[in-house]
Amino acid sequence: MSQFFIDFFRDYGKYIVFLHVISAIIWIGGMIVVKFIVAPVMASIQDVKVRLSRILEIMQRLLNFSFIFMILIVITGTLMSLGLDFKHSSPSLYMLVHIKEAIWTLMALNFFYIYKKRNSAAKQFLSGDNEGTAESIFTISNYLLPLNIFLGFVAVYFGVILRGL
Ligand code: HEM
Protein backbone atom coordinates (compact mmCIF):
# COMPACT_ATOMS: atom_id res chain seq x y z
CA MET A 1 0.00 0.00 0.00
CA SER A 2 2.76 2.47 0.95
CA GLN A 3 4.44 1.74 -2.43
CA PHE A 4 1.23 2.97 -4.09
CA PHE A 5 1.53 6.39 -2.39
CA ILE A 6 5.25 6.63 -3.22
CA ASP A 7 4.56 5.90 -6.92
CA PHE A 8 1.54 8.21 -6.91
CA PHE A 9 3.63 11.05 -5.48
CA ARG A 10 6.44 10.39 -7.99
CA ASP A 11 3.93 10.78 -10.86
CA TYR A 12 1.73 13.59 -9.51
CA GLY A 13 3.91 15.21 -6.83
CA LYS A 14 4.09 18.61 -8.45
CA TYR A 15 0.29 18.89 -8.60
CA ILE A 16 -0.06 17.73 -4.99
CA VAL A 17 2.54 20.22 -3.69
CA PHE A 18 0.96 22.94 -5.84
CA LEU A 19 -2.50 22.26 -4.38
CA HIS A 20 -1.09 22.15 -0.83
CA VAL A 21 0.73 25.48 -1.18
CA ILE A 22 -2.07 27.26 -3.05
CA SER A 23 -4.61 26.05 -0.43
CA ALA A 24 -2.39 27.40 2.36
CA ILE A 25 -2.09 30.74 0.54
CA ILE A 26 -5.86 31.01 0.09
CA TRP A 27 -6.76 29.84 3.62
CA ILE A 28 -4.30 32.11 5.43
CA GLY A 29 -4.55 34.90 2.86
CA GLY A 30 -8.35 35.01 3.13
CA MET A 31 -8.17 35.46 6.90
CA ILE A 32 -5.48 38.14 6.59
CA VAL A 33 -7.46 40.11 4.01
CA VAL A 34 -10.63 40.03 6.12
CA LYS A 35 -8.81 40.91 9.35
CA PHE A 36 -6.49 43.65 8.07
CA ILE A 37 -8.18 45.03 4.95
CA VAL A 38 -11.93 44.40 5.05
CA ALA A 39 -12.63 44.76 8.80
CA PRO A 40 -11.13 48.28 9.15
CA VAL A 41 -13.21 49.48 6.18
CA MET A 42 -16.35 47.90 7.67
CA ALA A 43 -15.67 49.67 10.98
CA SER A 44 -16.12 53.01 9.22
CA ILE A 45 -19.75 52.26 8.31
CA GLN A 46 -21.84 54.48 10.59
CA ASP A 47 -25.16 52.61 10.48
CA VAL A 48 -24.81 49.85 13.10
CA LYS A 49 -27.31 47.49 11.51
CA VAL A 50 -25.77 47.80 8.05
CA ARG A 51 -22.27 47.38 9.52
CA LEU A 52 -23.09 44.23 11.51
CA SER A 53 -25.07 42.57 8.72
CA ARG A 54 -22.25 43.21 6.19
CA ILE A 55 -19.62 41.81 8.57
CA LEU A 56 -21.74 38.72 9.27
CA GLU A 57 -22.14 38.13 5.54
CA ILE A 58 -18.42 38.57 4.85
CA MET A 59 -17.58 36.10 7.61
CA GLN A 60 -20.02 33.55 6.29
CA ARG A 61 -18.57 33.85 2.78
CA LEU A 62 -15.02 33.57 4.13
CA LEU A 63 -15.88 30.43 6.11
CA ASN A 64 -17.73 28.73 3.23
CA PHE A 65 -14.98 29.61 0.80
CA SER A 66 -12.09 28.52 3.07
CA PHE A 67 -13.66 25.18 4.01
CA ILE A 68 -12.73 23.49 0.73
CA PHE A 69 -9.09 24.64 1.05
CA MET A 70 -8.89 23.45 4.65
CA ILE A 71 -9.93 19.98 3.43
CA LEU A 72 -7.54 20.12 0.44
CA ILE A 73 -4.64 20.92 2.79
CA VAL A 74 -5.17 17.85 4.95
CA ILE A 75 -5.64 15.56 1.91
CA THR A 76 -2.57 16.85 0.04
CA GLY A 77 -0.51 16.98 3.29
CA THR A 78 -1.30 13.33 3.98
CA LEU A 79 -0.49 12.38 0.36
CA MET A 80 2.86 14.19 0.66
CA SER A 81 3.77 12.62 3.98
CA LEU A 82 2.98 9.11 2.64
CA GLY A 83 4.45 9.76 -0.81
CA LEU A 84 7.74 11.08 0.57
CA ASP A 85 7.77 8.15 3.04
CA PHE A 86 8.98 10.24 5.99
CA LYS A 87 8.08 7.41 8.36
CA HIS A 88 10.98 5.30 7.06
CA SER A 89 13.27 7.83 5.39
CA SER A 90 13.45 10.36 8.24
CA PRO A 91 11.82 9.66 11.64
CA SER A 92 12.74 13.13 12.94
CA LEU A 93 10.97 14.84 10.04
CA TYR A 94 8.08 12.38 10.46
CA MET A 95 7.67 13.82 13.96
CA LEU A 96 7.30 17.24 12.33
CA VAL A 97 4.58 15.86 10.05
CA HIS A 98 2.67 14.82 13.20
CA ILE A 99 3.15 18.30 14.62
CA LYS A 100 1.73 19.73 11.37
CA GLU A 101 -1.25 17.38 11.69
CA ALA A 102 -1.78 18.65 15.25
CA ILE A 103 -1.59 22.27 14.05
CA TRP A 104 -4.10 21.54 11.29
CA THR A 105 -6.43 19.95 13.86
CA LEU A 106 -6.19 23.03 16.10
CA MET A 107 -6.87 25.28 13.11
CA ALA A 108 -9.87 23.16 12.08
CA LEU A 109 -11.30 23.19 15.64
CA ASN A 110 -10.84 26.95 15.79
CA PHE A 111 -12.46 27.21 12.35
CA PHE A 112 -15.57 25.35 13.56
CA TYR A 113 -15.66 27.44 16.73
CA ILE A 114 -15.62 30.60 14.56
CA TYR A 115 -18.39 29.04 12.47
CA LYS A 116 -20.53 28.41 15.56
CA LYS A 117 -19.81 31.85 16.99
CA ARG A 118 -20.75 33.55 13.71
CA ASN A 119 -24.02 31.63 13.59
CA SER A 120 -24.92 32.59 17.13
CA ALA A 121 -23.94 36.20 16.33
CA ALA A 122 -26.35 36.05 13.36
CA LYS A 123 -29.12 34.85 15.71
CA GLN A 124 -28.33 37.65 18.17
CA PHE A 125 -28.49 40.11 15.29
CA LEU A 126 -31.90 38.83 14.15
CA SER A 127 -33.23 39.12 17.70
CA GLY A 128 -32.13 42.78 17.76
CA ASP A 129 -29.21 42.29 20.16
CA ASN A 130 -26.68 44.56 18.42
CA GLU A 131 -24.35 44.74 21.41
CA GLY A 132 -24.13 40.94 21.73
CA THR A 133 -23.54 40.63 17.98
CA ALA A 134 -20.75 43.21 18.09
CA GLU A 135 -19.12 41.38 21.02
CA SER A 136 -19.13 38.05 19.18
CA ILE A 137 -17.69 39.70 16.06
CA PHE A 138 -15.03 41.36 18.22
CA THR A 139 -13.97 37.97 19.63
CA ILE A 140 -13.76 36.43 16.16
CA SER A 141 -11.88 39.32 14.64
CA ASN A 142 -9.46 40.05 17.49
CA TYR A 143 -8.73 36.63 18.94
CA LEU A 144 -9.92 33.71 16.83
CA LEU A 145 -8.85 34.86 13.34
CA PRO A 146 -5.39 36.04 14.53
CA LEU A 147 -4.92 32.69 16.31
CA ASN A 148 -5.55 30.80 13.06
CA ILE A 149 -3.34 33.18 11.09
CA PHE A 150 -0.52 32.57 13.58
CA LEU A 151 -1.01 28.78 13.51
CA GLY A 152 -1.02 28.95 9.70
CA PHE A 153 2.35 30.76 9.73
CA VAL A 154 3.80 28.07 12.00
CA ALA A 155 2.47 25.34 9.67
CA VAL A 156 4.04 27.06 6.65
CA TYR A 157 7.38 27.40 8.47
CA PHE A 158 7.35 23.69 9.36
CA GLY A 159 6.47 22.96 5.72
CA VAL A 160 9.60 24.80 4.63
CA ILE A 161 11.67 22.71 7.08
CA LEU A 162 10.05 19.53 5.75
CA ARG A 163 11.09 20.62 2.27
CA GLY A 164 14.67 20.25 3.60
CA LEU A 165 15.68 23.88 4.07
C1 HEM B 1 -2.35 17.51 7.95
C2 HEM B 1 -1.58 18.54 8.04
C3 HEM B 1 -0.37 18.75 7.17
C4 HEM B 1 0.54 17.85 6.67
C5 HEM B 1 0.58 16.35 6.89
C6 HEM B 1 1.50 18.60 5.90
C7 HEM B 1 2.60 18.07 5.26
C8 HEM B 1 3.52 18.77 4.52
C9 HEM B 1 4.72 18.23 3.91
C10 HEM B 1 5.12 16.76 3.98
C11 HEM B 1 5.36 19.23 3.28
C12 HEM B 1 6.72 19.14 2.53
C13 HEM B 1 6.50 18.98 1.06
C14 HEM B 1 7.80 18.81 0.29
O1 HEM B 1 8.79 18.32 0.82
O2 HEM B 1 7.81 19.15 -0.90
C15 HEM B 1 4.58 20.43 3.48
C16 HEM B 1 4.88 21.66 2.94
C17 HEM B 1 4.11 22.78 3.10
N1 HEM B 1 3.02 22.93 3.94
FE1 HEM B 1 2.06 21.43 4.89
N2 HEM B 1 1.13 19.93 5.90
C18 HEM B 1 0.00 20.05 6.67
C19 HEM B 1 -0.68 21.21 6.98
C20 HEM B 1 -0.35 22.45 6.50
C21 HEM B 1 -1.02 23.67 6.85
C22 HEM B 1 -2.19 23.77 7.85
C23 HEM B 1 -0.43 24.67 6.14
C24 HEM B 1 -0.74 26.13 6.14
C25 HEM B 1 -1.94 26.61 6.38
C26 HEM B 1 0.65 24.09 5.38
C27 HEM B 1 1.48 24.77 4.51
C28 HEM B 1 2.55 24.23 3.82
C29 HEM B 1 3.39 24.94 2.86
C30 HEM B 1 3.21 26.41 2.43
C31 HEM B 1 4.37 24.04 2.41
C32 HEM B 1 5.45 24.30 1.37
C33 HEM B 1 6.75 24.73 1.98
C34 HEM B 1 7.81 24.87 0.87
O3 HEM B 1 7.47 25.01 -0.29
O4 HEM B 1 8.99 24.86 1.20
N3 HEM B 1 0.67 22.73 5.63
N4 HEM B 1 3.47 20.13 4.24
Structure description:
- The chain has 165 residues and is mainly α.
- It is 92% helix and 0% strand.
- The protein contains five helices and no strands.
- The mean pLDDT is 96.
- The structure holds protoporphyrin IX containing FE.
- Protoporphyrin IX containing FE (HEM) binds at residues 17, 20-21, 24, 27-28, 73-74, 77-78, 80-81, 84, 97, 100-101, 103-104, 107, 152, 155-156, 159-160, 162-163.
List keywords for this structure.
92% helix; 165 residues; binds protoporphyrin IX containing FE; mainly alpha
- Please state the average pLDDT score: 96
Spell the H/E element sequence. HHHHH
| Contiguous uncertain segments of 5+ residues | none
Count of domain modules: 1
Radius of gyration: 19 Å
Question: Quick one: how many beta strands?
Answer: 0
Please count the helical segments: 5
Strand content: under 5%
Which class do the helix and strand fractions yield? mainly alpha
Helix percentage range: over 70%
Shape: elongated
Largest sheet: none
- Small molecules (ligands, ions, cofactors) in the structure: protoporphyrin IX containing FE
Instruction: Give the termini separation.
Output: 29 Å
Gist of the model:
With 165 residues, this protein is mainly alpha-helical. The protein contains five helices and no strands. Residues 17, 20-21, 24, 27-28, 73-74, 77-78, 80-81, 84, 97, 100-101, 103-104, 107, 152, 155-156, 159-160, 162-163 line the site of protoporphyrin IX containing FE.
